[in-house]
Design goal:
Elements: H1 3-8, E1 18-19, E2 22-23, E3 25-26, H2 37-49, H3 60-79, E4 88-91, H4 94-109, E5 115-119, H5 128-137, E6 140-144, H6 154-160, E7 165-171, H7 183-192, E8 196-200, H8 212-215, E9 219-223, E10 234-238, H9 240-245, E11 256-259, E12 264-266, H10 280-296, H11 298-317, E13 322-324, E14 336-341, H12 346-355, E15 358-359, E16 361-363, H13 368-374, E17 379-383, H14 390-407
Parallel strand pairs: 3-15, 5-6, 5-7, 7-8, 8-9
Antiparallel strand pairs: 1-2, 4-10, 9-10, 11-12, 13-14, 14-17, 16-17
Helix pairs in contact: 2-10, 3-10, 4-5, 11-14
Bound molecules: 4'-deoxy-4'-aminopyridoxal-5'-phosphate.
Length: 409
């Protein structure tokens, strides 16, 4: 394994601790990532030196805070190769970005009889906003099927996306099945039918290079906390033509042009969608996280994680009594491995693994329709990031073995 990645681990102070007298093997990165010292230091630096409200004050600190906040927007723009920085809206996270879209784009463009297409692998945050919009508007929600090994069925996508479709809302990478969807192809199909494609990139942007222009997506949402940034900050990218035509999401300070007694006008994008005091430190912290990720290189991160999956997946598949969901071919499986052991509830499994210092998640992973589709109520999930290594995988395998022996399963 690349020596550079072994050293990188030292940048993450939280990983140095022991849990239940064992070294911590943090394998819950799909839920949230840990933070490098550089991001932690940046948060302290900002609060010690520059803290002020943005876009309001002409004093020095106010100007500094505004400059740093807007600089962070520029870093996000570059990171996902958006054409313009005004196409980057800061939100609370992926969930907030998608709700914003349902409440603005969805509310104005969806009518009775229209169709919204999602897939069976959507996280609730890219499902419930569309489900509820469809209910409000008497529109139809359609689900793209999955193949037997848990990939998106592209033939079914071509059948489900029709001239009646107004929105296709789809995950770039599944938070359960470890698959990457062919967004470029889905965008082409969507545009053939004059619909818009909205992509949930929560599990993609932290792990692989993402270029919104190459993908030709209309909207793209992701969260800062899954990519080394603070919690409570996220991004919505949208094509400026679409964003300009959308009504505001929330009303209040900083999103207006003129306010009169009985009517108001709105300022330009992106600020039209950023009402009230923003999570300035969140944006600046995310900017620092992007600096850190860029320094390593997103392709290097993707390659390293792939190497880790190629090491872990065959070994996990070799455990008697294990079921691994999603493709069993490690060339198409990302660093999210969901699994179950026969006759053991995933919560018991996760609790037992924690006794051995291994942090995995157990549950429905905010994807209840997918659980039903797979015929399970819950799974355990080990999810990797670039600071994980083979020792973490070995610790997971050993802990699974011990758990099997303890529960005699
Ligand atoms: N979509 C996917 C695929 C996710 O994995 C998550 C986080 N688990 C979300 C959306 C929601 O992200 P957040 O909770 O940061 O809004």
């Amino acid at each position: 394994m690349d020596n550079k990645f072994q050293k990188i681990r030292n940048d993450f102070p939280i990983l140095k601790q022991k849990v239940n007298d064992e070294p911590l093997a943090y394998l819950d990165n799909a839920a949230t990532s840990q933070k490098p010292q550089a991001v932690i230091d940046e948060i302290v630096r900002y609060y010690q030196n520059d803290n002020a409200n943005t876009h309001r004050s002409v004093h020095t600190l106010g100007e500094r805070a505004t400059e740093e906040y807007e600089e962070a927007r520029g870093k996000v723009q570059k990171f996902i190769n958006a054409p313009e920085s005004r196409e980057i809206i800061f939100t609370k996270g992926t969930t907030d970005s998608l709700n914003l879209l349902a409440a603005t784009y969805g509310e104005t463009n969806i009518n009775a009889g229209d169709e919204i297409v999602v897939s069976y692998m959507e996280h609730h945050s890219n499902l419930i906003p569309w489900q509820q919009l469809a209910l409000r508007k008497h529109a139809t929600l359609k689900y793209i099927e999955l193949t037997a090994d848990g990939q998106l069925d592209m033939d079914d996508a071509s059948r489900k996306i029709t001239d009646k479709t107004k929105i296709v809302a789809i995950a770039h990478v599944s938070n359960v099945l470890g698959v990457t969807n062919d967004i470029k192809k889905l965008a082409a199909i969507t545009h053939q039918h004059n619909a818009v494609i909205i992509v949930d990139g929560a599990q993609a942007v932290p792990h692989q290079p993402v270029d919104v222009q190459a993908l030709d997506v209309d909207f793209y949402a992701f969260s800062g906390h899954k990519m080394l940034g603070p919690m409570g900050i996220g991004v919505l990218y949208g094509k400026s033509k679409l964003l300009n035509a959308m009504p505001p999401y929330q009303y209040g300070g900083e999103m207006i042009n003129f306010v009169e007694k009985y009517q108001s006008t709105w300022t330009d994008i992106p600020w039209k969608f950023e009402a009230g005091t923003q999570n300035v430190i969140g944006a600046i912290g995310l900017g620092k996280a992007i600096d850190y990720l860029t320094e390593i290189g997103m392709q290097n991160i993707a390659d390293y994680e792939h190497e880790l999956v190629s090491y872990a997946l065959p070994k996990m598949l070799g455990i008697p009594g294990i079921t691994v969901y999603g493709p069993h071919d490690s060339t198409v499986h990302n660093g999210v491995i969901s699994f179950n052991l026969t006759n053991l509830h995933p919560h018991d499994l996760a609790t037992a693994l924690d006794m051995d210092g291994v942090a995995v998640r157990a549950g429905h992973h905010c994807a209840q329709p997918l659980m039903k589709y797979l015929g399970v109520v819950a799974t355990a999930r080990a999810s990797f990031y670039f600071y994980n290594n083979r020792a973490d995988v070995d610790q997971l395998l050993q802990a699974i073995q011990e758990t099997k022996e303890f529960f005699k399963v």
